[in-house]
Write a structure and sequence with these properties.
alpha/beta; nine-stranded mixed sheet
Length: 286
């Protein structure tokens, strides 16, 4: 898990953003006039947004296209490289632009829908939650201890992404009993590959990352979803962000997301990638 997902763990309360010190504008009208919706997505972030054979694909990419289509405009994508923290990502993507001079996007995908995060970033408005992410443990089907007490897995390797929430959790929980069993990788995809090739007996990542790895391998794995004992924040909602003077665009897109949810379009986008869509605000992971 990367740093943007770590920041998503801060809280899962409904969003409330205070009044901005900036005057309101009419960005929805501007989007309609120019005929394009500029959408920021993270670079190399499967299954959400990444390049496959040179083509930009992913859940956030397809959802961004659907948002533009419902507005009656064309999508234009900005591929965002994660900065040191999510606050910097919002600045680069939504309200100021990067130090290299790249223009801001009209909206940013895959933003934690989080009260504290929203309050400290008053130049952006968080809205339109469209999914609830959580963690999962995947195991080789031959294992019999995957859904029992996690301490029963002591003595066999568990693959994780370095410096991710699963890494911190498994090395620190249960008085460190599993610390020696944790195997570190540069990405969640590499951790899943370790499990799929039989080098590890289990892997822990987000549910979406686990399901993507399972689909890519064609193997049937045992997937254990939370709650995980001792993990304080086991799930978080994700939505979109717009600049603070683009509230009318944010409200319009929030309505569009509600419509895409109601008619099953969002669930269909997730299903196309083999990922389970979990409605925002779901309680099952808490």
């Amino acid at each position: 898990m990367n740093r943007r997902q770590l920041l998503a763990m801060v809280a899962t309360l409904p969003l409330a953003v205070g009044f901005s010190r900036f005057a309101a504008a009419a960005p929805l009208d501007k989007v309609m006039q120019k005929g394009t919706l500029r959408i920021a997505v993270y670079r190399d972030n499967p299954p959400w947004s990444w390049r496959q054979e040179g083509k930009l694909v992913g859940i956030d990419v397809d959802l961004g296209r659907a948002l533009a289509d419902r507005l009656g405009v064309k999508p234009e994508f900005m591929e965002l490289t994660a900065d040191e923290n999510m606050d910097d990502d919002l600045r680069n993507a939504v309200w100021k632009g990067s130090i290299l001079g790249e223009p801001v996007a009209d909206l940013m995908m895959h933003v934690p829908y989080d009260r504290e995060f929203g309050l400290r970033n008053d130049m952006a408005v968080l809205t339109g939650p469209y999914h609830r992410e959580s963690f999962a443990l995947a195991c080789d089907p031959a294992r019999t201890d995957c859904k029992g007490a996690l301490t029963d897995m002591a003595g066999s390797s568990i693959a994780v992404e370095t410096d991710s929430v699963p890494d911190f959790y498994l090395t620190g929980a249960f008085s460190g009993r599993l610390r020696g069993d944790v195997v570190h990788h540069l990405s969640a995809a590499a951790a899943m590959a370790d499990l799929i090739t039989g080098q590890a007996g289990a892997a822990m990542a987000t549910l979406a990352q686990v399901e993507l790895g399972q689909k890519a391998s064609g193997r049937k794995l045992v997937v254990r979803r939370g709650p995980f004992p001792g993990l304080a924040k086991q799930g978080w909602d994700i939505g979109i962000a717009v600049k603070t003077d683009s509230r009318d665009l944010g409200y319009k897109l929030e309505d569009v997301i509600a419509g895409l949810t109601a008619d099953g379009a969002i669930a269909g986008i997730f299903a196309a990638y083999g990922i389970t869509h979990v409605p925002p605000g779901s309680q099952g992971d808490r």
